[in-house]
Amino acid sequence: MTTDFDTVVVGGGPAGATAAHDLARRGHRVLMIDREGRIKPCGGAIPTRAIRDYAIPMELLTARIGAARIISPSGEKVSMEIGDRGYVGMVDRDVFDPWLRDRAEKAGAARLTGTFESLAYRGDGTLTLTVAEKGGETRTITTRTVVGADGANSAVRRAVFGPKKRPPYVFAYHEIVKAPPGRTERFDPDSCDVVYDGRVSPDFYGWVFPHGAHASIGVGSAVKGHSLKEATRKLREDAGLADAETIRVEGAPLPLKPMRRWDDGRAVLLVGDAAGVVAPSSGEGIYYAMLTGELGADSVETLMLTGKASALRGARRRFMKEHGRVFFVLGLLQRIWYTSDKRREQFVKMCRDPDVQRLTWESYLNKKLVKRERMAHFRVFLKDMQQLLGLTAR
Ligand SMILES: Cc1cc2nc3c(=O)[nH]c(=O)nc-3n(C[C@H](O)[C@H](O)[C@H](O)COP(=O)(O)OP(=O)(O)OC[C@H]3O[C@@H](n4cnc5c(N)ncnc54)[C@H](O)[C@@H]3O)c2cc1C
Predict the structure, then answer these.
(1) CATH assignment of the domain containing 271
(2) Is 13's C-beta closer than 6 angstroms to any atom of ligand 1?
């Protein structure tokens, strides 16, 4: 049977727009569906690696951040300067996502504004998708393959794996406020605050991220009954932003573990948040969404060229080979250090260490653990253990 498209990409966020761009650029017939109209809640911090690998133009960055200030429950502040290693780029998702979708369209992807509802296999292994178009019409579309890039609450994931299969997540909430015109006593437009404090989050962290004219102030937690709004109120107060004009308030689940399977063994592949690919500890998801969009495009193309459905597994395999170890360590870090204020205090103290600072920035900005730094890794590990066992001087 013939199909309308080779691939339908559901979702036009960082993951979907990257997959659609890559497949369209290689001459495949691609449709990208996005329901549009809702700005993705997000702190918008991206590492140098994302800017470089995905050719993100400088105009899209609302700020280039040169340091992070790590804050403990007792109020101790440790400044971690990036120095000449690079910077953290800040993007506003109301501008960034439409730009990514436009880029995919320019590369040849067709676009449809609508909500994916269901999918079904046809006799020959191709698929029919049902989409509620923005105007209210229901449309059916046929395709050889599907990329599910529709975020943390993925409807494609529910359609292929059922409602119970979803990655563990925290709920993240933030408020976008108007930032002061320059540095104040408590707010620095060139530095991100990362707050480890059980009152702010009993199991994750809070943040104040400057975005040029605006700032994102928010918190994540999976603990039921913990008031994220109250925690954000405290963060705003501590940053001297209690009276700043509020532009938007919004929240969304933040998955924290890649799913064991991203594909259905036939012709559907999940990428980005839909597959749970957000780093534990940090909640970083934009770079990983774009990377899995890219790897997903490769896998889908291989399936279409070879007819082998096993090619879909390549996306997860390649991702875990490159980043599985770091995700494992970050998961461990979260389980160890985010559990009590005593531990958080120790953790923040550890951040004073130059080895910790260098390796943290290297691995965040470039997503590579430098081999020649093996001794530094070992020193950090030892210091980590000493802190944990309470063997260091206070
Ligand atoms: C409060 C908060 C703060 C965060 N801060 C950061 C940060 O600072 N840095 C960072 O790297 N990550 C951050 N993240 C995580 C990051 O936002 C996500 O990991 C990233 O957006 C995932 O990209 P994605 O393309 O997989 O999914 P999404 O960005 O969620 O995109 C999914 C797309 O699918 C569309 N869609 C959904 N359902 C349907 C449907 N049924 N039919 C059609 N279209 C549909 C949506 O409109 C959307 O455009 C944060 C997350 C939250 C919640």
Answers:
(1) 3.50.50.60
(2) yes
Tokens 């449809």 belong to residue: 112
Whose alpha carbon is nearest atom 50 of ligand 1?
Answer: 42
- Number of domains making up the chain: 3
Q: What is the pLDDT of residues 210-250, one digit of tens each?
A: 999 999 999 999 999 999 999 999 999 999 999 999 999 99
User: Are 265 and 304 members of one domain?
Assistant: yes
Q: Are 314 and 302 in contact (CB under 8 A)?
A: yes
For the entire predicted model, the pTM comes to 0.95
Ligand 1 centre distance from Cα of residue 336 (Å): 27
Query: Which mutation among 94, 205, 254 tests ligand 1's pocket best, with the greatest number of atoms within 8 A of CB?
Result: 254
- Pocket flag, ligand 1, residue 314 (CB < 6 Å): no
- pLDDT beneath 50, residues of the chain: 393-394
Same domain as 213, residue 175: yes
CA distance 216 to 143: 39
DSSP per-residue codes, 106-163: HTT-EEEEEEEEEEEE-TTS-EEEEEEETTS-EEEEEEEEEEE---TT-HHHHHHH-T
Q: Examine residue 48 and state whether it is found in any structural domain, yes or no.
A: no
Asked if 127 and 142 touch (Cβ cutoff 8 Å), the reply is yes
Q: Which DSSP letter does residue 288 get? A: H
Spatial separation of the C-alpha atoms in residues 303 and 280, rounded to whole Å: 30
Question: Does any ligand 1 atom lie closer than 6 A to the CB of residue 175?
Answer: no
CA Rg value for the chain:
21
- Identify whether 393 is part of a domain: no
